[in-house]
Amino acid sequence: MLSLGCLWSRRRLERHMDGALSAREARSVEAHLLGCDGCRAERNRLQRLHALLQGSLAAPADLEWSRFWSGVRTRILREHPEPFREPWWLPIWKPFWGHPRLALGGVMAAVFALTLSFWPGGEVAVPGAAWAGPVVVQDVSSSDPHRGVMVYSNPDHDVTVIWVFNPEDSTNES
Could you tell me if residue 37 is inside a domain? Predict the structure, then answer.
C-alpha cells in the first residue's frame, strides 16, 4: 500500500539515481528506501531499465569541431556590439527602487492627486461651466395606457421638463 512517503519519494527516484537531488533530498529518499520494500523494488526496476538502455545505445562518433569553432570565433571578433542604452524611465525609477516605502508613498500621492483632479466641486468658479446639480425625477401616470410621462425638475434653477413618450414608437426614433 502506498503511503504519503511513497508518493513523495517515488517522484524523486529517477533524479536520485542520476545524482540530481540535493544532499538533503537524497538523504530523505535513502531513508525512505531503507524502510519501504515497494519503493526499493521500483528503484531496482529503474536500475535494470537504465542498464538496458545504456547497453543498447551505441557511442556516438567524435565529430570534428575545429572548423566550426574557428568560424564562430572569427564572427565574434568581426562583429562589434551596439552600445547599450538604458530606457528613459530607468534613471527616474532607480532612486525609488531601493526604497519601497518611498515608492509606495509616491504611488499613493499620485493616486490622491488623480482622485482630487476628478472630484466634483460644490460651487462652479468658472462662468459657463456646468456641473450637474440635483435633479428630481417623477413618473406621472397618464390616462392613455400606451403613453408615459416623465417630469424632471431642478429646484435650484426653477426648471421643469415634461417628457411625453410612447413606448411602442421609441424604437423608430434615434
Answer: yes
